[in-house]
Specification:
496 residues; globular; mainly alpha; single chain; 17 helices
Length: 496
Amino acid sequence: MGEIESEREPSLQRSELEQLRQKLVTKFERDVLALFDRYERHGNRFADDHSPDTTQDQPRYPRSGRKEFKQRESVLTVMLQKSKSIRTIYNIFLALAILIFLNTFVNDTINGNSTFLNFRVISWNFGRIQSVFLIWLCLFLSTVFVVFPTFSNWVHSRAKNPAVDPIYKGIYVCYMVVFLIVPAYLVRSVYELPPASTLIVVLEQIRLGMKTHSFVRENLPRDDSNPRVPPFENYLYFLFAPTLLYRDEYPRTKSIDWSFVKSCFVQVLACIVFFGFIFARFIFPVFRDFGKQEFDVEHFVQCVFNSVLPGTMLLLVGHFMILHCWLNAWAEMLRFGDRVFYREWWTSTNFGEFYRTWNVVVHDWLKAYILYDIPNLFPETTRDSPRTRMTSLAGTFVISALVHEYVIVMAAGFFYPILLFLFLGVGFGFMLAVQSNTYDSFQNTMFWFFMTIGMGVLMCLYSQEWYAHINCPHDGSRLLDYLIPRSLACHWPIQA
């Protein structure tokens, strides 16, 4: 009997383990489905806060991923117009910016430095502007005179002979590869552009590439029995419109308020000057000697916390400059009606909500062409499975993280994947761990705590790496010189 019981125990244990495994798999699939459905259902819960013709619970666009454009203003535009309190907060930030300028001016005067050095830093960052314009012009002309005619031939050819599809798809992939490699080579190897000038080229490269894909993706699946290419003027308008999703028509305003356009561009210039003074006041004095001194943990911790304030200010001002002022200026000039370029991301209680509301322009593109297109790569019977949905969500994050890292690498001139780690590792993990979509003061506080700490880490590590490349140069004769961060190699040299 004892032998029989001893033989039954392993089988019982295996049975219990199998039941436990099945329960865990079922729970995981249920949680993934809930997460994906919440991503679709609540991803735009702030979109229509100021639009009386929609409801809060209505999805922003159906499961197919097709967004509906409506005429509405940006969140901050409505707040600044209707709320005296919000306008007062804006005035407080403006006063603080003036105080930072005066602080820098007084310190420079007392220490015998020239405040105009800060403007020279701005001028250096935007240097070689003629080369920037030349590269941008090549990018734009290729998008106009290569993409549109080739796509037109593709549409008419596939109507007569669908077998040409693989040929044109190959041409499209080759074009996108060249569109990615050539500007990067020109920026880093030919013209050696400074950081801000590099950002202009790289961001325009990404913007035009995403617009090209949207144009092809939206127009190619149309009825082959009646091939139709959109009018060229529609395509040209789309290239300048502040959206990455192609439509034949967009909601348009009746007139252009040129005073609003002027105000937006003035604020953009003011934000650029503010950036210069932030770096001059909080970054240059702290990091300029990095690599010349001994490294210690206490100094690193102090560096992170000292970088929290400038990092957070750059985050807020950068968002206001690009996603509010710059995009609204172009929307007004083009009479583009749908100006929800962002939502109330500052009320986020988790990073998933932040990713969906921080940059609606990019989020809508990722959702339409990555999140909803990845399942099409799987067999039809498994497209709605939890594993496919999680793969789609993870793939969207990977692509977004890699593009962000590409921008940083090009602008900084070195590979230091801190943003990739925080974006793809920590951020994605937090998004899966915390899934609440109801506003909670404590969760919002914790979100801002981790956000500001993250900005401090990014600002500290990237600044250290930048000055390490200046103070600890290398000859580039070894592969490790490019793979090992210079901020580490300065203090712990890697032997060949």
